[in-house]
Write a structure and sequence with these properties.
The protein is built from 26 helices and two strands. The chain is mainly alpha-helical. It folds into two domains: 239 residues, no CATH class; 186 residues, no CATH class. The longest helix has 33 residues. The protein starts with 7 loop residues before the first helix and ends with a helix.
Length: 570
């Protein structure tokens, strides 16, 4: 759901500021009535009447200045706490802008406050040493209430700002909790401590403080500036933190339900959002819950590390390892990875082609599993592929030759299947069903490949190559290559050598995957997102934002009446 924020106070303030003195004067006249005074008929031309209008216009100008001062203060306070901008800059790896924004905001706040206070001192004759104890000074929020002379009559402009002026802060920004216990706006419901219009403000003198803030802000420009800054800073921080919390949760909105909450722990390897995707993808293969596929376990993490270092992505790598585990008995540890990566290098799949090789191994094991026949382990499949490569089969043909040979062994009608069934019946005392089941293990059984090799041992290499060509297993070119190399394509039951150079390369490749720690910028982004999603302060800010959102939705119908009233003014 998209975030919707409506700042009614700001809208009302801006509309009020745009009303010219002539419109306000006309409104005042209508409020007094059509026949309000003997001078009404010549108010535009009479000197006395004209003189009577000027004080009103001057008073409105001062009110507008105070309203502008409050708005400037609010903006200064909001600019002083751009938490969302700071977070974005931290993600990018920079921080100079954060410091610069703090300096500029503090300077603007100081300059604006000093300007307003200097104006006030010139107007009232107050000095720097004024202790603020006089009735009408209002210097300091803890001073007494302004004198009656300092109170301005609320006109239409000031009434529109009354809601902001009466805002009180429970505990202050430096109190207990993240923001001193929360922010309440009288007359609007909301967090604890807020009170409807006409109700009783919180106990402990806070009602007096909020009332004093309203009266002083209406009478003194600098205090309006200060109040606006406090409100702007507090609401700016809360809004930014709530937005960061929602963004962190929205980044995983596609996995929150299936994973069971916010997923974390990606470190520098993958983003936290991908941790949830990894858990879901592995759970779909291995079963169980997505959260149960703990990223800290060797299988999930090693698969993600492999996927990232191969450029296929952490999720694809972790899911690939899960399939190797289920269909091919892959142990998902560094030792097993070393074996299969060594076979890949010997098969011509080095570097970034390792992912392609392991995908082929996984596909062969999965096909065997899904066919209902025997299990073909990932380690044995990879070793057989490397031996076929050693016999002169090209790298991109290894999987096809393996599959053709396996089909000939497992399916009825193949010459190799008939040979294997006869062989196993001799071994088991004539049990035909058991013999067929043994033959269906195909290339996954060393006993099958050894039996075929033994039964064709009497053929010379060229005759065997021709026979395999007639079976549709290899091409004539591949048969000729094997003869030239002095290799037997059917001699695939031999163990892969562990003493060649490929074994060293395989060990180094497996260690590089296992030791991959990721990227620092990903780690920093994950730390920020995790705190924003799970931190208590961010959750509290989001709860407050939810209340404000609900409050605005509940009152959205009132906007129709407001718009109608405003239309009548123009």
């Amino acid at each position: 759901m998209a975030e919707v924020l409506i700042d009614i106070d700001s809208i009302a303030s801006k509309l009020a500021q745009k009303l010219g003195p002539e419109i306000v004067s006309e409104i005042s006249k209508r409020q007094k009535g059509a026949g309000g005074g003997s001078g009404s008929g010549n108010g535009k031309t009479g000197g006395s009447s004209g003189g009577g209008e000027k004080p009103k216009k001057k008073e409105l100008t001062e009110n507008q200045k105070r309203t502008q001062s409050l708005g400037e203060g609010y903006q200064a306070g909001a600019d002083a706490s751009p938490l969302d901008q700071d977070s974005s800059e931290l993600r990018s790896g920079r921080f100079s802008g954060i410091i610069n924004r703090k300096i500029q905001s503090a300077r603007k706040f100081k300059d604006t406050t000093k300007k307003e206070w200097d104006k006030y001192k010139i107007k009232t004759g107050k000095s720097e040493n004024d202790g603020g104890n006089s009735e009408d000074s209002g210097h300091g929020l803890g001073g007494g209430a302004p004198s009656p002379n300092a109170k301005s009559k609320y006109n239409i402009l000031e009434v529109k700002e009354a809601r902001i002026m009466n805002l009180y802060l429970k505990g202050g920004l430096g109190g207990s909790g993240a923001f001193g216990g929360g922010v309440g706006i009288p007359g609007r419901g909301g967090s604890d401590g807020s009170t409807p219009i006409g109700g009783t403000p919180p106990a402990g003198g806070e009602d007096k403080k909020s009332g004093a803030l309203g009266r002083m802000s209406a009478a003194i420009g600098p205090l309006a500036m200060g109040l606006g800054a406090v409100v702007g800073a507090g609401i700016g921080i809360i809004s930014s933190m709530a937005g960061m919390h929602q963004q962190a949760m929205q980044s995983q909105e596609g996995t929150l339900g299936a994973f069971g909450g916010y997923a974390s722990g990606g470190g520098g390897i993958v983003r936290n959002a991908e941790v949830g995707q990894i858990g879901i993808s592995r759970a779909r293969v291995l079963g169980g819950s997505a959260a149960g596929q703990d990223f800290d376990t060797e299988g999930s993490k090693l698969g993600a590390q492999f996927g990232v270092t191969q450029g296929i992505g952490g999720t694809a790598g972790a899911e690939l390892f899960a399939k190797l585990n289920k269909f091919g008995g892959f142990q998902e540890n560094e030792s097993a990875l070393k074996k299969i990566m060594t076979d890949g290098i010997r098969s011509g799949f080095g570097g970034l082609r390792q992912a392609e090789f392991i995908q082929q191994v996984s596909g062969i094991s999965e096909n065997a599993y899904n066919s209902g026949m025997g299990i073909q382990s990932a380690g044995q499949v990879s070793g057989t592929l490397s031996n076929l490569r050693d016999a002169g089969i090209r790298d991109n043909r290894l999987s096809s030759v393996y599959s053709a040979m396996n089909d000939n062994m497992t399916k009825d009608g193949g010459q190799m299947n008939s040979m294997l069934v006869a062989h196993h019946m001799q071994q088991n005392g004539g049990d035909y069903l058991a013999a067929m089941a043994a033959a269906e293990e195909g290339m996954g059984s060393q006993a099958n490949t050894a039996a075929i090799n033994q039964m064709t041992q009497g053929m010379d290499p060229k005759t065997k190559a021709i026979w395999l060509k007639k079976q549709g297993i290899i091409t004539a070119t591949e048969g000729q290559n094997s003869v030239r190399l002095g290799k037997d394509v059917m001699d695939i039951s031999r163990q892969t050598s562990t003493n060649d150079q490929a074994a060293d390369y395989g060990r180094e490749a497996a260690q590089a995957v296992s030791n991959y720690g990721g990227q620092r910028h990903i780690e920093h982004a994950n730390a920020l997102d995790q705190e924003a999603a799970l931190g208590d302060a961010f959750k509290t800010a989001n709860d407050l934002q939810d209340k404000i959102f609900k409050m605005m939705i509940d009152r959205i119908k009132d906007l129709n009446g407001i718009v109608t009233d405003l239309k009548a003014l123009f």
